[in-house]
Amino acid sequence: MAPRILSQEIAREFYLLRIDDEKVKYFEALWGIPEKVTYNAYLLVGDDVVLFDCWKDVYADDLVEAVKEVVDPQDITHIIVHHIEPDHSGSLPKVLEVNRFRAEVVAHVMAKPMIEAFYRISPKFRIVKDGEELVLAGERIRILHTPWLHWPETMMSYLSSRRILVSCDAFGGYSIPRAVFDDEEDVVQGYLPSVRKYVATIIGFYRQHIIRNIEKIQSLGLSINMIAPAHGLIWKKNPQLIIDYYRDLANGVPDDNKILVVSGSMYGLMEVAARAAVEEVEKLGGRVVFYRFNDSEQPPFSEIIGDAIDSRAIILAAPTYEAGIYPPLDQLVDLISRKIPPKPMLIIGSYGWAGVAAKKISEKLEGSGFKVIEVIEFRGSADEKDVQRIRESTRKLLESS
Ligand code: FEO
């Protein structure tokens, strides 16, 4: 099936070039995204022709065709490379080849060695600094260096007369929205969970930089009519919504009473114990999101992390395995401690002959600033007393969050 490609004028002589990547299953060859993703490039046409970012390499020929819908690729005078991750720069070599390397590649100083090393090309570079203003295609383009959104070289461009912020990874999300803009409420509400999952998996580790860069953008007092990210919806009706949503996610602001419960259970004993916590949360009016690793389910980490970032508290239940933590939960604890703002936690562990998992989970999380409200560990299956402790500790967790 041919990919769906949009080439659409979204402001005066400013074009969206969007491709819907229906083929990708794992973003960064890591995160399961059955909802898929779009790559958005942009084209500004005037006396100069400026391409803002590219697409993934497998879509290089498609990008050239999309550019041809608007201009001759040989007429591109500048390619602003905001970010080198290959979902946005992979087709740069092809575009430059078709362009006969006439265009200047406009990028941060850290981008140059990466472009040269990734693609073994030596285009004409124009190195730009934070705050620098370029006048291209009759537009004053202000460069904003926004490090760690997503890599250290990442920049945004502000188109002064059009009041458009071309934001690259920031303010983007997974999925293939059926619309281009945020006009319809149901499109926006359907899209935001994919933004949450994207932020948690891709930029969660750099969440302090989300806050810092939003502060930086707002301190500049830019009037923003449109945010044009490199993935997903374009924000025209309400750009402030996506800015606020990103800031809230980075701060770990909870979604009401959402409590994440994850259990790992080789033979079902731990899952019974975890269900006691689930029942208690529900009894107290909490909204449970429950993921189970067992002999018939292995839920994707991308979904769990996406649900962790805006949960009010988290309950993890895992048995001891080879003097450590049951491996899927071990990996999850590492991901949570790296990518998720600290939340109150309840840890439940179990063992056959020596208990290790609960203590190790607790140590890892506390080392990353998480507040562990209680650690419960039992041998074999949870007896009545253990279940009572789980219920009491769940109540304590909810009271403290
Ligand atoms: Fe969409 Fe960091 O690349």
Descriptive overview:
Helix 1 packs across helix 3, helix 8 crosses helix 12 and helix 10 runs parallel beside helix 11. This protein is an alpha/beta fold and 401 residues long. The strands form four sheets. The protein has a seven-stranded mixed β-sheet, with helices on one face. It folds into two domains: 5-250, Ribonuclease Z/Hydroxyacylglutathione hydrolase-like (Metallo-beta-lactamase, Chain A), CATH 3.60.15; 260-400, Rossmann fold, CATH 3.40.50. Helices cover 34% and strands 28% of the residues. The protein is elongated. It contains twelve helices and 20 strands. Bound molecules: MU-OXO-diiron. MU-OXO-diiron binds next to helix 2.
Beta strands, count: 20
Q: What class would the helix/strand composition place it in?
A: alpha/beta
CATH homologous superfamily heading of the largest domain = Ribonuclease Z/Hydroxyacylglutathione hydrolase-like
Task: Classify the helix fraction into a percent range.
Answer: 25-40%
- The multimeric state of the shown protein is single chain
CATH level 1 class label of the largest domain: Alpha Beta
Helical element count?
Answer: 12
Distinct bound molecules: MU-OXO-diiron
Low-confidence stretches: none
Number of domains: 2
The CATH topology of the largest domain is given as Metallo-beta-lactamase, Chain A
Strand-residue fraction? 25-35%
Strand order of the largest sheet: 1-2-5-6-7-8-9
What composes the largest sheet? 7 strands, mixed
Q: Radius of gyration from the CA trace?
A: 24 Å
